[in-house]
């Protein structure tokens, strides 16, 4: 055994190496990013040599024949564990300086030294940390399966230790501490739980890579919960992870869990000071990053509100997409019964937050519902929350510098208006909501260069066409309630129909090749939009109002041409039928009826001439 003075010197060298690696290296200049880490490595190699010569016997190799317990004796076991601690730090050092093969060798040696006693109090934490780091290393090599093996082994070891022993194990840093410096059991427990939280965090990422989405979400949720419980998190990173997890719950229509994640994200993010003042020590880039993260969380809130409204719409609409009053009454009656069950379910859900946070999170949750809105008043409350977050998101994601993000946020805003209009019974007010959509989308489209933003350009063309189409339908419905159509209503219907056709045609023109030829076979991603555009143009020609019989015939012929295109395309491409079954059925019907109608109109014309 080394003399007390020599042991103290050894401990000091080890601690100096850790200080250089974990603290001083952050201050290294950009020209020498690894200066402190290389110095730390030299000290660690020196500690390794001293352990070999002083404790194993002069001249003995430092890591040979030193597996914990091998060769007998407590001294030999202690030496092996200390060597393992040095090998671990060397492994982390090498991987952090981009020397992954050397890092792997040191981490593997650490595991080898500890293997026989990996379930003992002084080995288990260090063993799991080495497995965690090997998991990260193999993940970075894109060998996710090997990473999964290491991390799942670390998880199993933690569970086995907690079941068979459960006492707070020694932290890896304690192997070079005197008895007086050793940590309390409370601190040991906290550090061990943090090590295990890292295991779960990396496993969540591995499962995400392997597209085991449900398992990834489960591990992510558990990780976030543990980070709060053990205060082992960075507020901004935690908030972003929670907001991202909320989007997974949206795909499962788990609105209560999604809202809880978002409310927790907003509360935790506020711990970061949100946007710091210029008096803080943060750099301008740090402030910019914080503003961006705040806007990203706002975008997740927008998606939440939009999905909640759209989910309600699906439940309430009839076979032509209008609100079904019978379904509305039935669902409202059901909702009251289910609210009690929801509350019970809530208590079973994995909730975040310690007692000092739970009140703030609950207050945030109460600002927006997590149950489907079934009337205009309830829908408007959700809409207004979504709209507030739209404004927050647009503060950062401005069109100058963030074109794609800005347009996507405005599209979500438009979608919020669209789904709110579904709940509005008054057709005139509904028209005004769609007009708001036009007013926000048209300037964006006008300023967009389709050469660089073709996909976005097409999306805006189609959405503008659809919006004008909906407005035209509403004006027709309003006109049908009048005893006689006045010239103003006729003019409005025709104007809206022509604007809808204009944008549908622009969309269809964007599909043409450089020679302006329309494709014989449509790509899968534009198949349904293109055929629906053809169908809607056919219907729009049929809605144009004119007293000129010659113009009527021209419109009917144009309508027939578009219906016929859809029918003929589906005859040539049978795989397209399932994409447009309803439209195809109506197109076949109209393609059969229109020639006879046109013939009657021609006969009528000849009678009067």
Automatic annotation (TrEMBL):
<dbReference type="InterPro" id="IPR022083">
    <property type="entry name" value="KBP"/>
</dbReference>
<dbReference type="GO" id="GO:0047497">
    <property type="term" value="P:mitochondrion transport along microtubule"/>
</dbReference>
<dbReference type="GO" id="GO:0000226">
    <property type="term" value="P:microtubule cytoskeleton organization"/>
</dbReference>
<dbReference type="InterPro" id="IPR011990">
    <property type="entry name" value="TPR-like_helical_dom_sf"/>
</dbReference>
<keyword id="KW-0963">Cytoplasm</keyword>
<feature type="region of interest" description="Disordered">
    <location>
        <begin position="326"/>
        <end position="345"/>
    </location>
</feature>
<feature type="region of interest" description="Disordered">
    <location>
        <begin position="54"/>
        <end position="74"/>
    </location>
</feature>
<dbReference type="GO" id="GO:0140311">
    <property type="term" value="F:protein sequestering activity"/>
</dbReference>
<dbReference type="GO" id="GO:0021952">
    <property type="term" value="P:central nervous system projection neuron axonogenesis"/>
</dbReference>
<keyword id="KW-0206">Cytoskeleton</keyword>
<dbReference type="Pfam" id="PF12309">
    <property type="entry name" value="KBP_C"/>
</dbReference>
<dbReference type="GO" id="GO:0005739">
    <property type="term" value="C:mitochondrion"/>
</dbReference>
<feature type="compositionally biased region" description="Basic and acidic residues">
    <location>
        <begin position="326"/>
        <end position="344"/>
    </location>
</feature>
<comment type="function">
    <text>Activator of KIF1B plus-end-directed microtubule motor activity. Required for organization of axonal microtubules, and axonal outgrowth and maintenance during peripheral and central nervous system development.</text>
</comment>
<protein>
    <recommendedName>
        <fullName>KIF-binding protein</fullName>
    </recommendedName>
</protein>
<dbReference type="GO" id="GO:1990535">
    <property type="term" value="P:neuron projection maintenance"/>
</dbReference>
<comment type="similarity">
    <text>Belongs to the KIF-binding protein family.</text>
</comment>
<dbReference type="GO" id="GO:0019894">
    <property type="term" value="F:kinesin binding"/>
</dbReference>
<dbReference type="GO" id="GO:0005856">
    <property type="term" value="C:cytoskeleton"/>
</dbReference>
């Amino acid at each position: 055994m080394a003399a007390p003075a020599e042991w103290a010197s050894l401990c000091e060298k080890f601690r100096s190496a850790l200080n250089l690696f974990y603290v001083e290296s952050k201050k290294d200049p950009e020209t020498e990013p690894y200066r402190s880490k290389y110095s730390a490595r030299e000290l660690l190699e020196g500690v390794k040599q001293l352990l070999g010569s002083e404790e194993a016997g002069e001249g003995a190799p430092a890591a040979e024949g030193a597996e914990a317990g091998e060769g007998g004796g407590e001294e030999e076991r202690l030496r092996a564990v200390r060597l393992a601690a040095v090998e671990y730090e060397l492994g982390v050092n090498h991987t952090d300086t981009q020397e992954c093969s050397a890092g792997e060798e040191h981490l593997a040696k650490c595991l080898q030294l500890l293997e026989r006693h990996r379930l003992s109090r002084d080995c288990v934490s260090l063993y799991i940390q080495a497995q965690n780091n090997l998991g990260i290393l193999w993940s970075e090599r894109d060998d996710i399966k090997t990473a999964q093996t290491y991390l799942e082994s670390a998880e199993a070891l933690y569970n086995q230790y907690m079941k068979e022993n459960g006492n707070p194990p020694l932290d890896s840093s304690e192997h070079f501490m005197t008895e007086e410096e050793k940590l309390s059991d409370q601190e040991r427990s906290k550090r061990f739980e943090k090590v295990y939280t890292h295991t779960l965090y990396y496993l969540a990422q591995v499962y995400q890579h392997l597209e085991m989405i449900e398992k990834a979400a489960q591990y992510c949720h558990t990780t976030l919960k543990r980070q709060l419980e053990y205060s082992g998190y960075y507020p901004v990173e935690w908030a972003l992870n929670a907001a991202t997890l909320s989007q997974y719950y949206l795909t499962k229509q788990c609105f209560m869990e999604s809202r809880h994640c978002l409310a927790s994200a907003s509360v935790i993010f506020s711990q970061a000071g949100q946007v710091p003042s210029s008096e803080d020590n943060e750099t301008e880039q740090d402030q910019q990053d914080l503003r961006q993260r705040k806007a990203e969380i706002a975008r997740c809130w927008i998606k939440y509100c939009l999905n909640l409204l759209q989910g309600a719409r699906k439940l309430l609409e009839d076979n032509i997409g209008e609100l079904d009053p019978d379904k509305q009454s039935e669902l409202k009656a059901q909702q009251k019964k289910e609210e009690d069950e929801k509350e019970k379910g809530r208590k079973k859900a994995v909730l975040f937050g310690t007692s000092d946070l739970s009140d703030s999170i609950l207050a945030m949750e109460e600002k927006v519902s997590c149950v489907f809105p079934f009337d205009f008043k309830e829908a408007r409350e959700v809409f207004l929350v979504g709209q507030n977050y739209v404004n927050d998101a647009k503060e950062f994601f401005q069109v100058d510098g963030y074109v794609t993000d800005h347009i996507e946020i405005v599209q979500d805003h438009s979608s919020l208006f669209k789904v709110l209009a579904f709940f509005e019974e008054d057709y005139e007010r509904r028209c005004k909501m769609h007009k708001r959509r036009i007013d926000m989308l048209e300037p964006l489209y006008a300023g967009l260069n389709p050469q660089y933003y073709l996909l976005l350009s097409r999306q805006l063309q189609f959405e503008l066409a659809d919006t004008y189409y909906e407005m035209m339908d509403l004006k027709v419905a309003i006109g049908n309630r009048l005893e006689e159509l006045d010239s103003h209503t006729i003019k409005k219907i025709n104007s809206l129909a022509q604007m809808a056709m204009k944008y549908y045609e622009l969309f269809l023109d964007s599909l043409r090749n450089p020679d302006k030829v329309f494709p014989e076979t449509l790509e899968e991603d534009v198949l349904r939009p293109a055929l629906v555009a053809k169908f809607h143009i056919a219907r729009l020609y049929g809605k144009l109002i004119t007293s000129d019989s010659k113009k009527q015939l021209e419109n009917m012929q144009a309508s027939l041409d578009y219906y016929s295109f859809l029918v003929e395309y589906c005859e040539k491409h049978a795989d397209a039928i399932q994409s447009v079954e309803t439209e195809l059925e109506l197109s076949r019907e109209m393609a059969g009826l229109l020639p006879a109608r046109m013939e009657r109109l021609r006969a009528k014309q000849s009678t009067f001439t």
